[in-house]
Amino acid sequence: MHIVVGNDHAGPDLKNHIKQHLSDLGHTVTDVGTNSFESTDYPDHAAQAAALVVSGEADLGILICGTGVGIGISANKVHGIRCATCSEPYSAVMSRRHNNANMLSMGARVVGPDLALMIVDAFLSGEFEGGRHQRRVDKITSLDDAR
Questions:
Q1: Which residues lie across from 31 on neighbouring strands?
Q2: pTM (2 decimals)?
């Protein structure tokens, strides 16, 4: 699987930890984040990562900022993105199963490295169930299309 990762200045360490884990699992990883702790704007990194997911160049995306909230909100502004901000594995897997989330955001100041990998693994393990959930995802898409 091809996964894009992006982060702001709060997340270089966690991003690199996740990148290594993804590589160890055999995934192709594209990094659109920063490796600097100097202030940067998370919407820029979210937009770059989201563009790769929407275009199909990446299958999924993982984003990191201080809380995961700002970068996740930013990604969700990109047409076709369904980014879930998660701090534990259950929400991550359910975001894939029920919401067909194509991006995950996390907070480097909220989750530690081991928990982050559990969240990533849960997110990657989830498969969209379709059925009644497809109807709901279609409604989300129609809200997106109404912009």
A1: 5
A2: 0.95
Residue-wise pLDDT tens digits, 69-115: 999 999 999 999 999 999 999 999 999 999 999 999 999 999 999 99
- Residue 84: count of CB within 10 angstroms of its CB: 21
Separation between Cα atoms, residue 69 and residue 51, nearest integer Å: 18
Q: Is 86 within 8 Å of 96 (Cβ atoms)?
A: no
Which residues carry out catalysis?
Answer: 65, 98
144 backbone φψ class: left, alpha, beta (φ>0; ψ -120 to 50): alpha
Angle at 45 between CA 146 and CA 119, to 5 degrees: 90
Residue 48's region, left for phi above 0, alpha for psi from -120 to 50, else beta, is: alpha
CB 99 within 8 A of CB 139: no
72 vs 46: CA distance, rounded Å: 7
Q: How far is CA 115 from CA 1, 61, 112, 118, in A?
A: 22, 18, 5, 5
* Burial class of residue 22 in the structure, from the number of CB atoms within 10 Å of its CB (0-12 exposed, 13-18 middle, 19+ buried): buried
